[in-house]
Amino acid sequence: MTSGTEARRLARGLVTASHAAPAAVVTGLAAALAAALGSGWGTVALITVAVGTGQLSVGWSNDWIDAPRDVAVGRTEKPVVAGLLTARTLRDAALAALAVCVVASLALGLAPGAAHLVAVAGAWAYNARLKTTAWSWLPYALSFGLLAVCVVLAAPGPRVPAGWAVAAAALLGVGAHVANTLPDLEDDAATGVRGLPHRLGRRGSGILAPCLLVVAVAVVLAGPAGAPRPASWIGGAVAVCLALAAGAVTVARPRSRAPFGLSMGVAVVCVALLALATADIAVAP
User: How many CA atoms lie within 13 A of 136 on its CB side?
Assistant: First the structure.
C-alpha cells in the first residue's frame, strides 16, 4: 500500500470517526448564535475553533473508547473495525484536539472558557462511562446548556444567559441524545451499554425524543418577552413538524438515522428563533 493510499485511508477514518455532520452543525450553530449576539469576528472565530476542536475530541474519543465494543458486534461502518486506522491513532487525535480546545476556550475569557470546557468534559464523561448508565442524558443536558452559556458570556457587555434559553438548549441536547441512540439499541445492549434510551426501550424512547424536542420549541417560543412574532410562529411550526417527523420515522424505520438528522434540524430552527430574540436570551446580571 502506497503512502498516498495510507494517508487517504487515515483521513477518511478520521473524518468518519469525528461524527462530522453533527459536529459541523453544533459548531456552526454556536458561531451563528455568537454573531447574532453581536460578537466580533475575532470572538466568532475563537468560538468556532474552540467548539469545533471540542467536537472533534468528543467524536474521536467516542470511537477510541468504543473500539472494543464495535469490534465485538462487527460494526464495519466504524473506521477501527474497517481497518482505516487504529484506536491508538484516535486516542492521539482526540487528545491533540482537546489541547487546542483548551487553549481556544480560555482565550475567550475565564468564564466562557470554563463553561465550554465543563461542557466538553461532560461529553467525555458520557463516552467514558455515563453512556452505560441511566444518567446517559445528563451530559447532553449539561453540555448543550453550557454551550449556550459560553456563547452568551463571550458576547460583548456584562450579560448572562436567560434561564429559559439554557433550558431550551438542554432539552434539545437530551432529545438529540435519545434520537441518536435509537438505531443502535440492540448493538449497544449486546455490549453492556444501558443508557436511559435502552432502559426505556424503543417505544418509550421513540415517544420521548419528539416530546423533548417539541417542549424545547415551546420554551423557545414562550421564553422571550412579549408575544411571538409571525416569523417565530412559522419557525416554531416548522420545528414541531420536524420533531413529529422524527417520531414517525422512528416507528416506521427503527434503524434509520433520519430521526437524529431531523432533531438537528429542530436545533437549527431553534437557534434561528433565538437569533430573533437576542435581547431576551442575554440579560444583565
Answer: 22
